[in-house]
Write a structure and sequence with these properties.
heterodimer; A: mainly beta; 6-stranded mixed beta sheet; 5-stranded antiparallel beta sheet; globular; B: mainly beta; 48% strand
């Protein structure tokens, strides 16, 4: 079983739709959960960060973590064409005093005007 | 807004040649990382670096790879003898602190734009 699984999509939605992106994981040692956005041929850009179960909201974005189910989600409300990108979930365990990120494969999202 | 920068943006090299990829992390950050992304695949951790030494490295980071912080601003990844399978995007990242230190947000990793390495 892969450590982090993410449906690669592609996902295509109309402008204004609510988007739900999901990842599952198998390593119960993961403590920190992140969502990155990556535009084509660019570096990942941090969107959201959380380390506890529950919801965290930032503008149109909501990150949700369910550690008991080993499942995380990112919701995008009122999606815009500029949200079109690949969304990567990433997770980490503590590793001494710093940590490495384990990424999902990414979901390619297209928001159509 | 501070950002991680990387040079060059694209490097083409012949198999067997040495390459050095350069990164300038965010200035107050103390933890540095290299990741790579082969086309169409996941972003993969290579190595983390703190206090002038490697903290952790992955199985990918074998003897042909090395990292260095030659001065107060640059962080480099050297590949001694490149192979075709080293062709990938290489991302540098940095964070202000490590897990368990400082604010929760302080150990968020910020990525540079990447160097595309093509080995022919």
């Amino acid at each position: 079983q892969k450590e982090v699984e993410q449906d690669p999509g592609p996902l295509s939605v109309p402008e204004g739709a609510i988007v739900s992106l999901n990842c599952t994981y198998s390593n119960s040692a993961f403590q920190y959960f992140m969502w990155y956005r990556q535009y084509s041929r660019k570096g990942p850009e941090l969107l959201m960060y959380t380390y506890s179960s529950g919801n965290k909201e930032d503008g149109r974005f909501t990150a949700q973590v369910d550690k008991s189910s080993k499942y995380i989600s990112l919701f995008i409300r009122d999606s815009q064409p500029s949200d079109s990108a690949t969304y990567l979930c990433a997770m980490s365990v503590q590793l001494g005093s710093n940590y490495k990120l384990t990424f999902g494969k990414g979901t390619l999202l297209t928001v159509n005007p | 807004e501070p950002e991680v920068t990387q040079t060059p943006s694209h490097q083409v090299t012949q198999m067997g040649q040495e390459v050095i990829l350069r990164c300038v992390p965010i200035s107050n950050h103390l933890y540095f990382y290299w990741y790579r992304q082969i086309l169409g695949q996941k972003v993969e951790f290579l190595v983390s670096f703190y206090n002038n030494e490697i903290s952790e490295k992955s199985e990918i980071f074998d003897d042909q790879f090395s990292v260095e912080r030659p001065d107060g601003s640059n962080f480099t990844l050297k590949i001694r003898s490149t192979k075709l399978e080293d062709s990938a995007m290489y991302f540098c990242a940095s964070s202000e602190s490590g897990v368990g230190q400082g604010r929760g947000e302080a150990y968020e990793q910020y990525f540079g734009p990447g160097t595309r390495l093509t080995v022919t």
